Amino acid sequence: MPPVSPAPKAGENPVWSGWDVLLIAGLTLLTLFLAQLFIVLGARRFVYPHKSFFDVAQKPVLALLSELVTYAVVALYMILLVEGKYRTRFWQAIRWNWPGLAGLSMLGVGVLMLGFDILGRYLPMPKTTPFDQFFARPTDAYLTVAFAVTLGPLMEELFFRGFLYPVIARRMGVVWGILLTAAPFGLMHFMQYGYSWGAVLIVFLVGVVLTTVRAATKSVAASFLAHVGYNGTLMVLTAWATDGFRHMEKAAVLAACLKLGTGY
Fold first, then answer.
1. Cα dihedral 174, 176, 181, 185 in deg (nearest 10)
2. 59-78 pLDDT tens trace
3. Which of 254, 193, 222, 233 lies closest to 100, judged by CA?
4. I want to staple 217 with a disulfide (CB 3.0 to 4.6 A). Which of 75, 173, 209, 222 is the partner?
């Protein structure tokens, strides 16, 4: 019987541990819950006194504000963890490694990932999802788009490809690092997309490509650019097809893809 080949070495040796990654994940969930709770309570008290708590909680602008607060808290914790506890420069530790002009090719990789969205025509996709409210009005849609091409991909890449991937790859190798990073990236969207496994599968495949970019280039900045390229292309196509998000019914397929691309 031939010997089993060892897993490909990842060349990753982050200063943080898996427990640190779990703490970041826990902090994110707790902060998001508390931010949404207090922001909704405050808005109901001072802005929407005649609406129910549930109705106020459905306001996209408040959800986005909660997301912004969460991003700020988690980003600060990440920096303090790396530079305070481990005495290492943050951007160097997570391997940001900005690719310069060559990074434009990463935007192209993001555009090519649109091919995954063709699968949406052949997979069971929900007709409506809890995320629909973010595109019910043009103003809310544009705010969501702004998040989807800036803070959303930045924070997701910092956590999944910056913190999570190198911990898994160091222990289990490149292949398992890619797959086990893409899996929670896809499952994170399970509830948002109406518990549709088809939607989660598409996001999982996008996560595989993004993590592969990170592994191949040793750069979180590269995977960030690919992520922006994917999200941004979906945004532009959908805005064009729906006359500035004013007629979402004109591009039902693109609209569904847009929801997948935002990662919110």
1. 130
2. 999 999 999 999 999 999 99
3. 222
4. 222
pLDDT score of 1 more than 50: no
Phi then psi for residue 218, to 5 deg, are 55, 35
| CA distance from start to end of the chain | 48
The residue type found at 157 is E
pTM of the entire predicted model = 0.88
* 28 SS3 class: helix
**CB distance 86 to 93 below 8 Å:** yes
What is the dihedral angle through the alpha carbons of 106, 212, 156, 20, rounded to the nearest 10 degrees?
-140
Residue 12 sits at the vertex; the CA angle it makes with 7 and 14, to the nearest 5 degrees, is 135
- CA 222, CA 218: separation in Å to the nearest integer? 8
Concatenated DSSP letters of 197-260: HHHHHHHHHHHHHHHHHHHHHT-HHHHHHHHHHHHHHHHHHHHHHTTTTT-GGGGHHHHHHHHH
User: CA distances (Å), 251 to each of 122, 239, 254, 255, in order?
Assistant: 17, 9, 5, 6
The set of residues, in sequence order, having a beta carbon less than 8 Å from that of 152 and lying 6+ positions away, is 231, 262, 263, 264
Indicate the SS3 state at residue 12.
Answer: coil
Surface-to-core class of residue 242, CB atoms within 10 Å of its CB (0-12 exposed, 13-18 middle, 19+ buried): buried
Q: Count CB atoms within 10 A of the CB of residue 81.
A: 20
